Amino acid sequence: GENKQRDCGNDDDVLVPPTNFSMVEEGLYRSGFPEPPNFPFLETLNLKSIIYLCPEPYPDEHRKFFESHGIQLFQFGIEGTKETIPEDVITRALRILIDVRNYPVLIHCKRGKHRTGCLVGCLRKLQNWCMPSVLEEYHRFAGNKSRGTDMRFMETYDVLRMRQCLYSLIYQYHGYGSNKRRLLYRDVNLP
């Protein structure tokens, strides 16, 4: 009947973001695992890269979607257990995040809570956020599923070593949305 057509589910124009979707800042997004009904929404983000934090391979349908839209895939298989997240994996993912050439970027894991929350938290530390604000943002997405191991990981994550890992140059994430869409190099003074 006619009423069926007015149902949200039958309206082709309605966009459905992935679960737990949010904008971290301009050109950087986070979410849980995107499903095919979320693809039209993802198209609107004009993604250049995806950072996927689970070890499981993507279904073919996802791979075809990413390939057809020229989206580069960076997969870092962090097990979804309650174990500690490996620091070197977060460091490698951060190296992708601070390079403006990879933007716009979507970070996602299974539910967009723990693994994604830890990566975003460490990015915030790199951006000189104070720890209470880092943890507040983590809690906003993890809710009552917040994990002590995650919070300790973010608290002890060594941002200075991260900066050293980038040798003496850092691709300064700067003014992505402004007219300064070029790489800004900045010498990092190492101790």
What does this structure look like?
Helices cover 37% and strands 15% of the residues. The chain is an alpha/beta fold and 191 residues long. The chain has one domain: Alpha-Beta Complex (Protein-Tyrosine Phosphatase, Chain A), CATH 3.90.190.10. The chain has a five-stranded mixed β-sheet with strand order 1-2-5-3-4, covered by helices on one side. A two-stranded antiparallel ribbon has the order 6-7. β3, α3 (60-68) and β4 form a beta-alpha-beta unit. α4 packs across α5 (114-126) and α5 (114-126) packs antiparallel against α6 (131-142). The radius of gyration is 18 Å and the shape is globular. Residues 2-7, 167-175 and 177-191 have low confidence and may be disordered.
The number of distinct helices, counting runs of at least 4 residues, comes to 8
Strand order within the widest beta sheet? 1-2-5-3-4
The separation of the N and C termini measures 72 Å
Structural class, please?
alpha/beta
Q: Which fold does the CATH topology refer to? A: Protein-Tyrosine Phosphatase, Chain A
Uncertain spans: 2-7, 167-175, 177-191
Domain module tally: 1
The CATH homologous superfamily is named Protein tyrosine phosphatase superfamily
Provide the residue-averaged pLDDT: 83
Helix content: 25-40%
